[in-house]
Design brief:
The chain is α/β, with parallel strands linked by helices. It has 12 helices and 23 strands. Strand 14 and strand 15 form a beta hairpin. The longest helix has 20 residues. The protein folds into 2 domains: 237 residues, Ribonuclease Z/Hydroxyacylglutathione hydrolase-like (Metallo-beta-lactamase, Chain A, 4-Layer Sandwich), CATH 3.60.15; 138 residues, Rossmann fold (3-Layer(aba) Sandwich). It binds MU-OXO-diiron.
């Protein structure tokens, strides 16, 4: 495969992985993914920014032969996770003169995880520059988006910013430049939700820094297409990472005999009638990426669960746990559920969401099918959600 030239002597040398169906064994991939890698040929030195996911190493290295790359001086490791660093040992074997250039935290990771020896690593400081002759790289440490070892690399003369996982998307392409369409927007949002949202405040800060201080001509992430118009992805990140929620209630539910779903449907109808948007999510059938995207925006989450063995349904517990670790900016929550013979349905779910410090609205628990008095309680819940949204100027 011919490397694609992005600017004079700056090439894309990554690969698409169209057949990958799931990432981190957690979130389904609608569009596969790409592992991006970039080659920069300076007048005196050649650098490679990020490498390849290990199962793709052979295909990746073959392309270096096809493109007559006989020498690499520096392998820039922006991050130690193996979808980007996994091919470093094979590259060092192929290009024995190459040195890995990275920050101290990433150096520790690749030494321990990939057994790269000390004498093959050059550790740099934040904002340090590395000359390739007529091109200069500046390293900008960006811990937290999404590992402590993450950094960006800035190619000064060409005004290109290589942002590693930050601003990426699980997306495959022929043309490496980002289309501005719904498919890419959704992929980037799903990616933000599952990978970056737990670090929302850092995302907010780095977005501001890139937008106002670096002002790159292009943003080149390590998954998904290159952004020739960085404002497209930066504006999206500004929205997703802002402190403002949308006037949206997310209602994930699992219902064994239909009673919990009946309550969820009643809530959906009542909330919509009050001008509040809803997103009903079937935990058994749903795609976790859709749930995660709902969490990016929702001001309120109402979790519905049947009782199983005196506690929440395990699939509802899984969703509560996931919401807890993804750390959305959601402000309000409640629970509905149905039981047969007893137990504590909401205690464990509440515990799993405790770190979010949600303002909890009175839950509704019914025995079997909901009765008229239960629907009255659901009306109270609808009124309470409306009042909460009004209190933060969403309605
Ligand atoms: Fe795409 Fe954190 O690796």
């Amino acid at each position: 495969m011919q490397f694609k030239e992005i600017k004079t002597n700056v090439y894309y040398c990554g690969l698409n992985d169209r057949n990958r169906k799931i990432f981190d064994e957690l979130i389904p991939l609608e569009n596969g993914t790409s592992y991006n890698s970039y080659l920069i040929k300076g007048s005196s030195k050649t650098a490679l920014i990020d490498t390849m996911y290990p199962p793709k190493t052979d295909e990746y290295l073959k392309n270096f032969d096809e493109n007559n790359i006989t020498k690499i001086d520096y392998i820039i490791a922006n991050h130690g996770e193996q979808d980007h660093s996994g091919s470093i040992p094979a590259l060092l074997k192929k290009y024995p003169e190459a040195i890995v250039v990275t920050n101290p935290v990433c150096a520790g990771n690749i030494k321990e995880m990939l057994h790269v020896p000390d004498d093959k690593i050059k550790i740099i400081e934040n904002k340090e520059e590395l000359s390739l002759g007529d091109k200069t790289l500046r390293f900008i440490f960006a811990p937290g988006v999404h590992w402590p070892d993450t950094m960006f690399t800035y190619l000064i003369e060409d005004n290109l910013l290589f942002t590693c996982d930050f601003l990426g998307a699980h997306f495959t392409f022929e043309d490496i430049y980002a289309p501005h369409n719904d498919e890419l927007y959704k992929s980037a949002k799903r990616y933000y939700a599952e990978i970056m949202m737990p670090f929302r405040l850092m995302c907010k800060n780095y977005t501001k820094m890139i937008k106002e201080e670096i002002k790159p001509e292009m943003v080149l992430p390590s998954h998904g297409p290159v952004h020739k118009e960085p404002s497209y992805i930066l504006d999206a990140y500004e929205d997703w990472s802002s402190d403002t929620c949308k006037n949206l209630v997310l209602l994930p539910y699992v219902s064994m005999y239909g009673s919990t779903e009946e309550m969820i449907d009643y809530l959906v109808k009542g909330l919509e009638a009050k001008g509040i948007k809803t997103l009903k999510y079937d935990i058994v059938e749903g795609d976790l990426g859709d749930l995660a995207m709902g969490l990016v925006d929702a001001a309120t989450v109402i979790l519905g669960s049947s009782m199983v063995l005196a506690g929440p349904h395990p699939m509802a517990a899984n969703i509560a746990y996931l919401a807890g670790v993804l750390r959305p900016k959601t402000k309000f929550a409640s629970f509905v559920g149905s039981y047969g013979w007893g137990g504590n349905l909401f205690g464990k779910l509440g515990d799993m969401l405790a770190n979010l410090k949600l303002d909890v609205i009175e839950p509704v628990l019914v025995k079997g099918k909901p009765k008229a008095t239960d629907f009255e309680k659901l009306d109270d819940m609808i009124d309470a959600v409306y009042a909460k949204h009004k209190s933060v100027n969403l309605v």
